[in-house]
Amino acid sequence: MAQLQWFPGHMAKARREMSERVKWVDIIIELVYARAPYSSKNPMIDEIANNKPRLVVLTKSDMADEERTKEWVEYYQSLGYEAMDVNLKRFKEYNRIINQCRRVLKDKMLKEQQRGMKPRAIRALVVGIPNVGKSTFINALASKKVAVTGNKPGVTKAQQLIRVAKDFELFDTPGVLWPKFEEERIARNIAFLGSIKQTILPLDDLFIEAMKYLNVHYPKLLEDRYQLSFDLESDWILSVFEHIAKVRAIKKIRGETDYDRVIEIFFNDIFDGSIGRLSWED
Ligand code: G4P
Fold this sequence. Notes:
Blueprint: H1 8-22, E1 27-33, H2 44-48, E2 54-59, H3 66-78, E3 82-85, H4 94-114, E4 122-128, H5 134-143, E5 147-148, E6 161-165, E7 168-171, E8 175-176, H6 184-192, H7 203-217, H8 219-226, H9 237-247, H10 259-271
Parallel strand pairs: 1-2, 1-4, 2-3, 4-7, 4-8
Antiparallel strand pairs: 5-6, 6-7
Helix pairs in contact: 7-8, 9-10
Bound molecules: guanosine-5',3'-tetraphosphate.
C-alpha cells in the first residue's frame, strides 16, 4: 500500500499540549474504536500519562463484532487497564463511564479528604484519534452540565473544565492524538475506521485490502449487503467492481464502470456501519 502521509510537527505539538493537560487531571479517558482497539490506541499516551489512572473505552461497540470486542476488553483488563465498551449513541451508557472513574478514584479522593483537603470533583481528560467519538461524548455531557467551573490555577482559558456532575469535571476540548503510522497494518486499519481524510488515501488499494479481509473474516456481510461472493484464488478484482456497480445501480461513465463511485459507496457502507458489525483486528 502507498505510504500514508505523516506529520511529525502536529504530533509534537499534540504531545506538548497533552502533557500539560494531564497534570491537571485525575484520570485519562482513552477512547479507542471497538472495530480496531489496538490500532486506534496511541502508544504515546503511555509516555505522557504521568502514572495517572486510565480508562480505555472502546467506542462504537454497536458497529463492531461483539465477540472480538469482548476479547479486546478482557485483553486490556489483563494488562491492568480499566476497560469497557460503549455505544456513545446511547446517553444512558455514559453513566457507566463516569461510575467507573468514580470507582477507580474512590480511594484517592477519600485519602485527600482524610488529609484535610476539601472534597472536590474528579477531573478527567478525554483523548483519542479523530472520529472516535470524543466530541459526541463531551458535548452530550456538557449539554447536561450542572455549571461551568471557574478558571483553575494553571488551567488556561482555552482549557476550561466543565462540570458534568457534582463530583465530575471534564476538559471541554478533547485531546486529538494520532497513532503511529509506522506499521502498515495500523495505517490501514485507521484508514478503515474513517479517521483519515479520504483525499489523501490510496482508496483503490484500501478497497482491495478491505475486500480481501471481509471475504476471509466476514463473507456473510458481503453476501447480505451486495449479494457478493468471490474466490480469492481467482482474478476477482474487476468482477467485484462490476458486480457491486450492477447491484447498486451505479451509472456508467461513457460506457465504463465508475470504479470511484463503487469505492465511495463501499466505504460509506463501512464507515456509517450499514455493512454490519465487524472488527478489523483479532
Ligand atoms: P471525534 O470528536 O472524536 O472526532 O468524533 P465525533 O464525536 O465527532 O464522532 C464521529 C462520528 O461518530 C459522529 O457521526 C458520531 O455521531 C459517531 N459516533 C460516536 N460514537 C458513536 C457510537 O458509539 N456508535 C455509533 N454508531 N456512532 C458513534 P457523524 O455522522 O459524523 O455525526 P452525527 O451526524 O452522528 O452527529
